[in-house]
């Protein structure tokens, strides 16, 4: 084989070996074996050689052609194999790996307590009613027998939306709305947000109440005591002491403040040797809600005859119950949405 053919062979086989893509192999195939390829042109050039040199040269060229073709095919196979392996490697999925875990949310502590409260009343046959957060003066105050000069109407306590409209300061207006729309017998609770101009460790400008009332013929204070005692013993503990103290609300007569035995000291007023309980301030009792017999004036506003029907009503703060149940000492924790706090519930 002459030297230039030898050099061409060396160069072409090197380049085949260094090729790394199907495209490079294809380009080389065209460049060497194509219609205008180097070897093709050399084969065509055989015609110009003297007759005695032709067979030998022809043989050598054809052999080189075969070798080049074999190498191209071989290299192409290797390249295809490699790219397949690379693809398999890159697209590998380990089906034994654990999936992405989505952390489950949980109910807010106030929702938990509210659900519990509703459950207990539901068990005693109460239905659930709702009313508007923006309330008119008539339903929030007037019809509840809260006169114009009552301190509860002070700007200090009430958020006014306009002259006649307020953010409701309690859930009691829903008593009025329900009685206006329906006739006794009624046995209703009203959970909902209420608003007051107040902000410290035990007061929040927005908080929640559950109002409740029962109206029928011959409802007595004994019914009120029975319902609330059962309720409080379900929420706190079966042994919890419950007491009713005389009090005043414009919309009930008589009115009472309802206390439970202190959840921290168990009613003893002391936590350890001579150290008085911080939560109940040594009294052994905690004020938990307001209640009373619905005032005849309120019945007149809703056109019920106070000679024919009677009823009781009560109202409690959901945050306060949750704070006592879970020993939480700052109401603001409920609304800061700190996950470290919220994760402890539910
Ligand atoms: N509305 C009162 C308040 O927000 C709570 C209340 C007290 C509701 C006595 C009542 C009740 O229905 O009888 O402080």
CATH class of the largest domain: Alpha Beta
CATH architecture of the largest domain: 2-Layer Sandwich
Q: CATH superfamily of the largest domain, please? A: Bira Bifunctional Protein, Domain 2
**What's the order of the H and E elements?**
HHHHHEEHEHEEHEEEEEHEHHH
Calculate the mean pLDDT score and round it.
94
Approximate strand percentage: 15-25%
* Unreliable runs: none
Number of strands: 11
- Report strand order across the widest sheet: 1-4-5-11-10-7-6
What compounds are bound to the protein?
3,4-dihydroxyphenylalanine
Radius of gyration: 45 Å
Question: Could you characterize the architecture of this molecule?
Answer:
With 346 residues, the chain is of the alpha+beta class. The chain folds into 2 domains: 2-90; 109-342, Bira Bifunctional Protein, Domain 2 (BirA Bifunctional Protein, domain 2, 2-Layer Sandwich), CATH 3.30.930.10. The chain has 12 helices and 11 strands. The chain has helices at 3-18, 22-33, 38-45, 54-90, 109-123, 137-140, 173-181, 221-235, 296-301, 318-326, 333-336, 339-342; strands at 127-128, 134-136, 165-167, 186-195, 206-216, 242-249, 252-261, 270-272, 275-276, 285-294, 310-317. Strands 1-4-5-11-10-7-6 form a 7-stranded mixed beta sheet, with helices on both faces. A hairpin with a 2-residue loop joins strand 6 and strand 7 (252-261). Helix 1 runs parallel beside helix 4 (54-90) and helix 2 (22-33) runs antiparallel to helix 4. It is rod-shaped. The two termini are 89 Å apart. The model has no long low-confidence stretch (mean pLDDT 94). Bound molecules: 3,4-dihydroxyphenylalanine. 3,4-dihydroxyphenylalanine binds at residues 170, 172, 211, 249, 252, 290-292, 313-315.
């Amino acid at each position: 084989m002459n030297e230039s053919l030898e050099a061409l062979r060396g160069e072409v086989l090197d380049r085949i070996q260094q090729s790394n893509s199907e495209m490079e192999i294809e380009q080389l195939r065209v460049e060497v074996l194509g219609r205008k390829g180097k070897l093709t042109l050399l084969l065509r050039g055989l015609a110009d050689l003297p007759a005695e040199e032709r067979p030998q040269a022809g043989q050598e060229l054809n052999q080189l052609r075969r070798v080049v073709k074999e190498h191209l095919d071989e290299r192409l196979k290797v390249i295809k194999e490699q790219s397949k392996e690379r693809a398999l490697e890159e697209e590998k999925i380990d089906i034994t790996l654990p999936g992405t875990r989505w952390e489950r949310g949980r109910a807010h502590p106030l929702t938990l307590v509210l659900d519990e409260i509703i459950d207990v009343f539901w068990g005693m046959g109460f239905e659930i009613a709702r009313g508007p957060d923006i309330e008119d003066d008539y339903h929030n105050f007037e019809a509840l027998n809260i006169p114009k000069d009552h301190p509860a109407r002070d700007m200090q306590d009430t958020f006014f939306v306009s002259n006649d409209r307020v953010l409701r300061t309690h859930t009691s207006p829903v008593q009025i709305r329900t009685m206006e729309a329906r006739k006794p017998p009624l046995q209703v609770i009203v959970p909902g947000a209420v608003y007051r101009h107040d902000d410290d460790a035990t007061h929040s400008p927005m908080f929640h109440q559950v109002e409740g009332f029962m109206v029928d013929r011959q409802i007595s204070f004994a019914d009120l005591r029975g319902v609330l005692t059962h309720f409080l013993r379900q929420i706190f503990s079966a042994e919890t002491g419950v007491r009713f103290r005389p009090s005043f609300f414009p919309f009930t007569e008589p009115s009472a403040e309802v206390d439970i035995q202190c959840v921290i000291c168990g009613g003893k007023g002391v936590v350890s040797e001579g150290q008085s309980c911080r939560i109940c301030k040594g009294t052994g009792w905690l004020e938990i809600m307001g209640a009373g017999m619905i005032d005849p004036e309120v019945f007149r506003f809703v056109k019920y005859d106070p000679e024919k029907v009677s009823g009781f009503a009560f109202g409690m703060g959901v945050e306060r119950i949750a704070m006592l149940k879970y020993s939480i000492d700052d109401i603001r924790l409920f609304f800061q949405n700190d996950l470290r706090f919220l994760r402890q519930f539910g």
